[in-house]
Specification:
The structure holds two protein chains of two kinds.
Chain A lengths: L25 H6 L4 H9 L1 H11 L11 H6 L10 E6 L9 H7 L1 H14 L4 E6 L4 H16 L15 E6 L9 H8 L23 E5 H13 L1 H4 L10 E8 L5 E6 L2 E2 H8 L9 E5 L8 E2 H6 L1 E2 L1 H6 L8 E6 L4 H15 L5 H18 L5 H12 L9 H15 L1 H9 L8
Parallel strand pairs in A: 1-2, 1-4, 2-3, 5-11
Antiparallel strand pairs in A: 5-6, 7-10, 8-9, 8-11
Chain B lengths: L21 H5 L37 H10 L9 H12 L4 H10 L4 H8 L13 E6 L2 H5 L2 H12 L12 E6 L11 E3 L2 E3 L7 H11 L2
Parallel strand pairs in B: 1-2
Antiparallel strand pairs in B: 1-3, 3-4
The chains are: A alpha/beta, B alpha+beta.
Chain lengths: 430, 217
């Protein structure tokens, strides 16, 4: 089944049941083999679960692509204080819309993944930090967790194994920065979602000051399948360094936007032309942002060379991020769209670090001036210089995310900026 | 429920390859509404709190709401962690989070009123002042913007006859610009109270407004 569109190029692992309302019922989920991987995990023991996830090569699907098994192995082996598993369901990167679909179509898959993850890192409590705006996903998830408790898949002595794991759905309240892992922890603790300086890393001191691991929804959704089928099975898709499948959220000027689960390493051109039915209205491709608004924009020539895995995107000077492919055709006003993204970051900057707080709003002002036809070519140098000072100088990477679209668009679409200046009225002062 | 006169694949996939009724997408059999007392404690802190029916003077944390609040407290190792769910609860009842509500929450959680205000103002979903019965949040971020979100926003402002961020004279609508609502494949996405409307075009705006006026949700 497909939702809302499908393609025969897809390799469905986590999105198999998108669009099937029955999958939300625990009975259906169990009859389709659900919670079997959890049972198997309990038989394997935590160390073996970590090993199988390591062997699969699964990398974090939230954007950074950090190997999941390795992350789990950083947790203390002995439990001297409470451990926590946090599920990052605060999906808010512009262009990304996979986690909401995963939660509202297949909530038990996520819950099972959370329980396996918690077991592997000796955590007795999982917090699913779900974005506040996702009322539907929250309701679906809350009901699914309630059912899991009722049927003995969560809570005390799960399936008679003697393991106790609690699951709590925690609702956010609208702040992009809470998708940053340490910002999320502060928010969970009832504070402003300000990112924390690392170290200490979450595995040493995370939520409530205790050892914690945080994983993206899609990562945890893949875990039950890997435990059931083994690490080698997952490696049948993808590349050596980026194994497995990934949900690609395609939006913008394509005929069939939507979520497509494809093997990593899939050529970007084929994703647009074949899977998504080509460009809307037969227009020419102008630019693509392959990984959500925080990564550099690439032009049509680079699109032709880009394969969609972590390394393939780096090779053309961008990043895979969370695989949110935003496609723009030749009717697009790049300056306006970059300005809109910068406005977003200026709004969402938490304000802790000066380069980000000041830099994002200054950048927004200059971008607005250029868009309004009042810019000068020197503004581009100012933007480049200023955004350069925003990279790597702050606690989290929100600041770097401002720089990425600004710098890449000036380098690749300079003529778009200059065209707006040529159209401008001459300045009043000579 | 299923007679919504506009296509809305976010709730009912009647475009593309898949066909769903709205009941299948959000009816009681598959999703349903959560009980006021929060149901099982695991999900007590995850309730829709942008509702059409509100009582700005309603009593906070009484009866079923008190039960829910108590359940929330059992899920965290610290009292402070219940702050966001408690503020959500206050907004669910009263429609916005007033200074009085914040003070009450501060008292219940042994926090200072200044601290609670600091936190509440950090998050965009807490309405710091009353809004219309329907809070219309139009996503104008990149993916929706590429597909005409600004025209949709303008249409809502025109048809509700209100300025951006202001409430219409009949008290029904407040329209604001929203950041990415994570429905980028179904542009333009508009969140109205607790519900997502997807693939919205300017032509559909009057139908949505009429639907809200007559059906209330």
């Amino acid at each position: 089944m497909a939702y809302p569109y499908g393609s025969d190029r897809e390799a469905r692992v986590v999105s198999t049941h998108f669009g099937d309302p029955m999958q939300r019922r625990i009975d259906t989920y169990v009859s389709r083999g659900g919670y079997g991987a959890l049972k198997k995990s309990f038989e394997m023991g935590p160390a073996d679960v970590v090993d199988v996830v390591k062997s699969s090569g699964l990398r974090g699907r939230g954007g950074a692509g950090f190997p999941t098994g390795l992350k789990w192995s950083f947790m203390p082996k002995e439990q001297t204080k409470p451990h926590y598993l946090l599920c990052n369901a605060d999906e808010s990167e512009p262009g990304t819309f996979k986690d909401r679909e995963l939660m509202r179509w297949d909530p038990h898959q996520l819950i099972e993944g959370c329980l396996i993850g918690a077991y592997a890192i000796h955590a007795k409590h999982v917090y699913i930090y779900c974005r506040g705006e996702f009322f539907e996903a929250n309701q679906v998830l809350a009901r699914a967790v309630e059912d899991a408790y009722a049927k003995g898949y969560a809570g005390t002595d799960i399936m008679g194994s003697g393991n106790d794991i609690d699951v709590t759905v925690h609702q956010g309240a609208g702040a992009y920065i809470c998708g940053e892992e340490t910002g999320l922890m502060n928010s969970l603790e009832g504070k402003r979602g300000l990112p924390r300086i690392k170290p200490p890393f979450p595995a040493a001191s995370g939520a409530f000051g205790m050892p914690s691991t945080i994983n993206n929804v899609e990562t945890l959704c893949a875990v039950p399948h890997i435990v059931s089928n083994g690490g080698e099975w997952y490696r049948q898709w993808g590349t050596e360094k980026s194994p497995g499948t990934k949900l690609f959220c395609v939006s913008g000027h394509v005929r069939k936007p939507g979520n497509y689960e494809l093997p990593l390493g899939f050529p970007l051109t084929e994703l647009i032309e074949d899977v998504c039915g080509g460009m809307r209205d037969g227009n020419a491709l102008k630019a693509v942002i392959p990984g959500g608004s925080s990564v550099p924009i690439i032009n049509a020539e680079e699109v032709g060379r880009c394969s969609l895995d972590y390394e393939g995107c780096v090779a053309v000077g961008t990043m895979l991020g969370c695989a949110s492919v935003i496609v723009m055709d030749d009717t697009t006003n790049i300056v306006k769209q970059v300005r809109r993204m910068v406005d977003f970051y200026a709004h969402e900057s938490c304000g802790q670090c000066t380069p980000c707080r000041e830099g994002s709003s200054w950048t927004a002002q200059i971008m607005r001036r250029i868009e309004d036809g009042k810019g000068a070519e020197a503004d581009l140098d100012t933007l480049m210089e200023m955004t350069q000072q925003m990279v790597g100088t702050t606690i989290c990477v929100l600041s770097d995310s401002v720089a990425a679209p600004v710098q890449s668009s000036i380098l690749k679409f300079r003529e778009d900026y200059l065209a707006l200046m040529a159209a401008a009225e001459p300045a009043g002062v000579a | 429920m299923s007679d919504v006169p506009f296509k809305n694949p976010g709730w009912a996939g009647n475009t593309g390859d898949f066909d769903l009724t709205e009941d299948q997408v959000r009816g009681d059999d598959f999703v349903g509404t959560r009980p006021k007392d929060g149901g099982h404690a695991s999900g007590a802190g995850a309730m829709p709190y942008m509702l059409a029916s509100r009582d700005p003077e309603g009593p906070l944390f009484e009866g079923e709401y008190q039960e829910r609040f108590d359940k929330i407290l059992t899920r965290y190792p610290t009292k402070r962690a219940a702050l966001l769910p408690a503020l959500s609860l206050a907004q669910e009842i009263r429609g916005h989070v007033s200074p009085q509500s914040m003070d009450r929450v501060a008292e219940l959680l042994d926090l200072s009123p200044a601290y609670v205000r600091g936190v509440a103002t950090f998050y965009t979903m807490y309405n710091k002042r009353p809004v219309g019965r329907h809070l219309v949040q139009v996503c104008t971020n990149i993916s929706c913007n590429l597909c005409g979100a600004e025209e949709v926003l303008q249409a809502f402002l025109n048809y509700t006859d209100a300025e951006l961020g202001e409430t219409s004279e009949d008290g029904n609508f407040t329209t604001i610009e929203a950041e990415c609502l994570a429905a980028c494949g179904y542009p333009t996405c508009v969140q109205i109270n607790s519900r997502y409307y997807e693939n919205v075009t300017p032509a559909e705006v009057p139908k949505i407004i009429e639907h809200l006026k007559t059906k209330g949700d």
